[in-house]
Amino acid sequence: MVFSLNGILVNASSDVIDIGEVVVSASGFEQDADNNLRNVIVVDGFLLEKKGFTSVEQALERISEISFVDFGLGRNIDMRGQGNKSNVAVKVMVDGRAINVLDSSHGVTPLDTININNVSRIEIIPGGGSIIYGNGTRGGVINIITKKHKEDSFSINAKSQSYENIIDGGNFGFDMSKMISDDIVLTLNTQGFDKSGFQKGYNQRGHYINSGILADINENSNLSLNYNFFKSNSESSGYLTKAQIEKNPRQKGNGENVTKTDRSELSLDYNYFINDAWELNLRTFWQDQKILYDKDVISMAIRGMNVKAYQDGSGFNDSILGLNFKAKYNYDEKSYIVTGYDFLNHEAKRTSLLKYSVPVIIPYHNMETIMNMNKQSHSWFILNSHQFNDFFVLSGGARYEWNRYSTDRSYKNQMQMNMRPPGKPTNKNELIFFDTKKYNDNIAFELTPTFIYSNTGLVYLKYERGFISPSPEQLVNKDNKSKKYYSSDLDPEVFNTFEIGISDVLWNFHAFKFSIFYTQSNDEISYLGNPHSASGSWWKYYNIDQTRRFGAEVNLSQKFFDDTLIFKEGITYIDASISKGVNDGLRIPYVSKINLFAGVDYYWNLNFNSFVDLNYHSRAKDGGEINENTGKITQNNWIKDYMLIDIGSSYNYKNLQISAGIRNLFDKKYYTYQDSANDQYLPGIRRNYYTEFKYVF
Fold it and tell me: Whole-prediction pTM value?
């Protein structure tokens, strides 16, 4: 029995804990983690199956290096204190293909479109990765690896969840693979779901389809073709006020939203092993995601009155066409060079519709904004890792990225106001077009010396320079007085990270990893006004701010009694603040200083195990009120700290696996979203129960 705990591989049938054989794909080729990026955490399929997770988000919430941040758009993965920049500063990938959306102003990384039943393992790289992965990795990289069957198999599974009722929905699906010859395997994984939310008025139903063909062309090359599809229909009732959420967190909000999501992905991977020294990898892929607000009713304050506004028909479209080529040359037993080229053509469209009326005063006010965005990226990189002797390894590399942008938008405003004498309707149409803005200084480089002081221990130092290039919507400003659009002429954000870490195994039962990091970012992109306004406001993006992030990460694991009792602990400390500009000295919103995970797993026998997991997040500041004219943040109140405890068990009987448990055992209150300045909150999930049945034929 072999499984990974917080990046530490544990063999439950031996007396050895080995932290040097965790296989990751950080360079695009399978290799040992200790010959690659230093601080790598791996969650493998063993844990995903044993703990009844119904989503990737649920699995990642159990990692101390990861937080989830909602600043009004939806939940995004955060690492190393990115806060409201988490959607552009943490790169999320599936089998090496980035899924972050282009529209950073409104975009949420589509983590919920990934079928957890099709996940083999999750690789987590806190902080950096700019050489291999390029833009937007200041917080880190998440690489979700899907299953690759190479034999005949068939299994069915059913999962249920409940809050107060017996069943509040769940998942049902099957996973199969069929060898049609010695060299070709067909795979299919489907999953349907229909789940109610903790808050009344929430429901999500839909399905996943994951299919693929894996073929060994000959003994030196293989190819895989995969098609994935996700479709969902979600209903929600919007935010609650502080008074409402304290009284009854399950009650409906004041809004009404029906969202339809469709996401398709097609990918082709080809691997060729020229000889023992040379490997080649070619990957091309296409992704397309459509989000439509079939119904969207919100409340707006106009002239002291609460007015219902309708955004029906609004939505987003995000599409990616990508090509990636890598070559690896092993010029010595433990030394290699990886070089490659990345191409991305990323397109996005945003349609914003808003309609409302105020009795007697405004018979109608209709606004329409349509944005088309494109970002084309070309990148070249090289990474060299050379082992000089048994004690010293030096790795380093560089990446150059060139971007070309184009974006256009149209704005229509139709309004009638009742005046004395009666006024005429106002109709305004405006079109703005920008093209070919180039950035020629997107350069990243890294240098990492590693000192191997024993058979199990090593110390590394790392310096990395990386970047976050602007997204197309940030290239357009709107003047406050004239209401005309103009170019923002932004520079990319540049960050420098210094890190030191150590990993080792002590006394043959205690494994640990420890790292300290400091990241300083210059030319951070900020804004005045309100670029998120649905009512056609004004805004100005600009480079001025500087931020700093200092922190430490610890992962521990101990095993006793022939691997039947396993303890694991993870703690992350982050001090993230704004260090230049009008908000100098303020904490970065939505960042907890301390995240803690502790758990114990007990294996009663080979077929039965139990676990207890604890997660703690310290308090953080919310986004507060941003002064439109100065950018000064005020009224940013504290988000309460919280601790969640989960318990569960898993039992195998022949081909049947049964899992059950309780999440948030002590029914703790917490918020997944807080905007105290506007009195808007979303409740965290209180005590809930899960069951899972899986049968393998």
Answer: 0.91
